Amino acid sequence: MSAFRIIANLNIVLIALVLGQTFAHAEQTNNKVIKLGMSTALTGPAKNIGQQLHKGSSVYFDKVNNAGGINGAKVLLLVADDHYEPKQTVNNTREFIYTNKVDALFGAMGTPTSHAIIPLLEQSKIPFLMPFSGASFLREKPSVKAFNLRASYNDEAQEQIKYLVEEHKHTKIGLFIQADEFGLYVESGLREALAKYNLTPVIVARYKRNSQDVESALNTLKLSGVTAICLVGTYEPLSEFINSAQKQGFNPEYTSVSFVPSFDLFDEVNSPSHIMVTEIVPNPLNCNDNFCTEFLADMQASNIKKPSRLHFEGYINAMAFSKAAKNCQFPLQQSCLMNELNSLLVTDTLIQKLFINTENNNKRNVYRSYYVNK
C-alpha cells in the first residue's frame, strides 16, 4: 500500500507518495530521492483529467519504487491541485521549485496553466516534462526546457480537418472554443489546417473556461449554417453543448482534441451524435502489445476497474522518465536527463511505436476515437 503525507500550505495541498513507506521514513533510511512536482486539476470541472493522469503515473512509479527505485533512488511524486486555474498553477510551481526543490516538473495539465508559468520556467531553467498540452509554445520556445511525448495540437487539427473535409466532405465548419490560451492555440492549428483546403471557419463561438455557459455559443453556431463543429474544451461543457444541440434539433458532426477524455465525454453524451476525438495514445483496451498487457495488469492490481487513455498516458510518462533517469548518475543532472529523454524518441522501440510515425516524416502519431450511438 502507498503511504501519503498531506502538507497544507494556504491554497496548496501536496501529497507526497513513496511506495511502502512515508517520506519521513524514506529520508531516514535512504537519502537518495528524486523529486518530481505535478500541478494538475484534482478538483473542479477538469478533475477527471488530472486525477487519471496522476493515478497512471503513480502506479508506474509505485512499481519502480517497489523494485528498488531508479539506481537506488526512490521517486517522490508531489502533486498539487490547481483546479485548472493558471493563478494557482503559478503558486504551486513556485512552491515546487523554490521550497520543495524538485528535480523536474512532471505531467502538468493544461495550456493556460502551462502558459502562466513560462516566466518561472525561463528563470529557473527547470525541466518541464510531458505536459498534458499540445500547444506550440512548448515545442518552439528554446528558453524553456520542455520535453513532449504527445502530438501537437497542430498535428491533431490536421487529422480532424482531414477527417471532416476529405473523408466526410464538409465545407461549412464552425469552431466552439474555450476562451483562453488553450482555445487560441488549437484555433490557430485548425485555421492552418483549413487553409490547406482554401477554407476558413464559418463562425467561431467561445465560452468561459471552467463553466458550462454554452447557450450563447450554441445559438450562434446553430444560426450559422455549419454542418460540422470542431470542439475545444473540457468534457463537461462539450457534452452540455452536444446534448443541448440535439434537443434543439441541431445535429452537426463533431470533432475534438485529445484534451477531452473521450471515455468521459462519450459517457456524458445522451443522444445520437457523430463525434470523432483525436488521441495521442492508442486505446489500451484494444492493444495487444506486451506493454499494454503490463499496463492493464498493473491497473487491475491497483484496483482501477476502468483503465482509460489518460491512465495510460500518465503511466507512459512515468515509464519514459524512469528509462531516461536510469541512464543518469545520482544526483540527477538536468542536462543528462534532457539528453536521455530526447534520445528515447530515436532509440527506444516502444516510444517510437507509440508516438512516432516513421512512415510520415517522423511526425507524432495521432489516433482516433469514435462515439457509438447509444
From TrEMBL:
Leucine-binding protein domain residues: 34-367
Keywords: Signal
InterPro entries tied to this protein: Leu-bd, Peripla_BP_I
Short name of one Pfam family: Peripla_BP_6
Keyword Kinase set for record: no
SUPFAM superfamilies reported in the protein's UniProt record: Periplasmic binding protein-like I
Top-rank lineage group of the source organism: Bacteria
Signal sequence extent: 1-26
PANTHER family referenced in this protein's UniProt entry, alphabetically: BLR6548 PROTEIN
Family that this chain belongs to: Belongs to the leucine-binding protein family.
The protein, known as: ABC transporter substrate-binding protein
